[in-house]
Specification:
CATH topology of the largest domain: Ferritin
Number of domains: 2
Oligomer: single chain
Number of helices: 9
Distance between the termini: 73 Å
CATH class of the largest domain: Mainly Alpha
Number of strands: 2
Shape: elongated
Largest sheet: 2 strands, parallel
Helix content: over 70%
């Protein structure tokens, strides 16, 4: 089993080993870029093309390094990788590509090139061997070239398709996170108004009201979460992972209910109730704003749907509690 104790220091590597390390690194980077391209090909073809070309560039640099190794040291390349060297920069495993979003992949690619360049530059500065300094300097220059290629490829492939890709990414964000979260927030904020305020005005006991509020919020969150998971597997609708949507819905439902339940931790009934009224007003405004911003619902329509509905449910709870 490999252990961190078995790692070698970079300063202890021979020029051949440094060259072999560069070759394996180029292979890894090309593999990662191809993984990004594969994950993006269906939804983001422009970005997939960008990563395909970046992978091709890494292959070209690997071949150039192999030619240099053959010229100087022969055909047998030592087996040495990043994990064998102490302090060497890390890369995310290729299998993580499917868990990264478009923006994260682009950021990861930029970081890969920048960190590699900085590492080689620092290694070149600390080397005392002229040949090694030149080799490391050449590698740093190669990584700087990669970075320039990355920028130029981004401009070439993303300029025409960036708007459509951003629209697709925004749509996916809305479908996977905003819609389920908004549904949960609406249900948690509005549906719990009646039981919480009915209990508050019926008992005028803040602790009892708080317990009822927590129970209603958590129960609604669990119910809404499982309902979202069971309602749509996301395969046809494209709304994303049902587990993700279920978690988002359940959490936001619970938060929506707890917002106006927490004030009843205040011992004084009327103080707690006035604070709860203010929080309810804030909750309804936030829901209205989210509907307007992400769902493009006109302000007037959003206010009628949310604020009017919330006020009616709140009034019903108070009337039932005082009846």
């Amino acid at each position: 089993m490999f252990s961190f104790a078995s790692r070698r220091r970079f300063s202890d590597l021979s020029e051949q080993q440094v060259l072999a390390l560069a070759i394996s690194s180029e292979e890894d980077d090309a593999r990662i870029y191809r993984g990004f391209a594969q994950a993006l090909r269906q939804d983001y073809p422009e970005s997939a093309s960008m990563f395909d070309e970046m992978a091709a560039e890494e292959d070209e640099h690997r071949r150039a390094l192999l030619d240099l190794h053959t010229e100087r040291f022969g055909d047998v390349v030592p087996l040495i990788r990043r994990e064998h060297v102490s302090g060497f920069y890390a890369r995310k495993p290729t299998w993580l590509a499917e868990n990264l979003g478009l923006a994260q992949m682009r950021a990861e690619a930029e970081a890969m090139e920048s960190v590699a360049q900085a590492f080689y530059e620092k290694a070149a500065q600390t080397s005392t061997d002229a040949g090694t300094r030149k080799l490391l300097g050449d590698l740093a220059a190669a990584e700087a070239e990669h970075k320039e290629i990355s920028s130029s490829l981004a401009e070439e492939h993303l300029s025409d398709g960036a708007d459509s890709e951003q629209a697709a990414a925004h749509r996916q964000f809305v479908l996977t996170y905003v819609q389920p979260g908004l549904a949960g927030l609406i249900d948690g904020s509005i549906s719990t108004l009646a039981p919480i305020f009915a209990t508050a005005f019926a008992t005028q006991n803040t602790w009892t009201t708080f317990l009822v509020g927590v129970a209603a919020s958590v129960g609604a969150g669990i119910s809404m979460g499982f309902t979202e998971v069971a309602s749509d597997d996301g395969v046809i609708s494209g709304r994303g992972s049902p587990i993700t949507r279920g978690i988002v819905t359940g959490v936001m439902t619970t938060i929506g209910g707890l917002g106006h339940a927490l004030p009843y931790l205040i011992p004084d009934f009327w103080t707690a109730t006035y604070v709860a009224f203010v929080i309810v007003a804030l909750e309804l405004f936030v829901i209205t704003w989210i509907q307007h911003k992400y769902m493009e619902t006109p302000w007037v329509k959003a206010m009628l749907q949310i604020i009017l509905g919330g006020v009616l449910v709140l009034a019903a709870g108070i009337l039932i509690g005082t009846g």
